[in-house]
Amino acid sequence: MTARQPVSELAAMLAGMAPALDARAWFFEVVDGPPPADAFAVIREDEGITAIVPGERAGTPFARITLTVHSALEGVGLTAAVSAALADGGIACNVVAGYHHDHLFVPWERRDEALVILQRLAGGAG
């Protein structure tokens, strides 16, 4: 598998983001002790440890939408453009950035609407 070069120009990041919706529901949980093995992400804060975990749990479910473009960590504007588009639609968005991709966590019941907004944003950037 050949690694793709990271994209840093905003128009190219938007045009290539190809948002992909994960079928599972995700939950933000404060954990005591070691985080669950199936955690997507673990965030260590002064107040405690948060894990983003899949499955059926108590709490508010979120959908994970991955922007499949390999955005550069130094790229400017992708998070702002995506969060602004979702905010315009009244959709909350929590962003977790990995080395290769950005992952958006949106309210589960608004996942399809969020995906359409992101697809529209990507289509308008090209």
Give a short synopsis of this structure.
Residues 65-119 form the CASTOR ACT domain. The protein has a domain at 10-24 and 60-125: VC0802-like, CATH 3.30.2130. It is 25% helix and 32% strand.
Q: At CATH's second level, what is the architecture of the domain at 10-24 and 60-125?
A: 2-Layer Sandwich
Q: Profile the largest sheet.
A: 6 strands, antiparallel
Low-pLDDT windows of residues: none
* Averaged pLDDT: 92
> Spatial order of the strands in the main sheet?
2-3-1-4-6-5
Pfam family, one: ACT_3
Domain CASTOR ACT: 65-119
Domain DUF2241: 7-58
Protein name: ACT_7 domain-containing protein
Give an overview of the whole structure.
By secondary structure, the protein is an alpha+beta fold. It has a domain at 10-24 and 60-125: 2-Layer Sandwich (VC0802-like), CATH 3.30.2130. Helix content is 25%, strand content 32%. The protein is built from 3 helices and 6 strands. It has helices spanning 10-15, 78-88, 111-125; strands spanning 20-31, 41-45, 48-54, 62-67, 94-97, 102-107. It has a 6-stranded antiparallel sheet. The chain is globular and about 45 Å long. The protein starts with 9 loop residues before the first helix and ends with a helix.
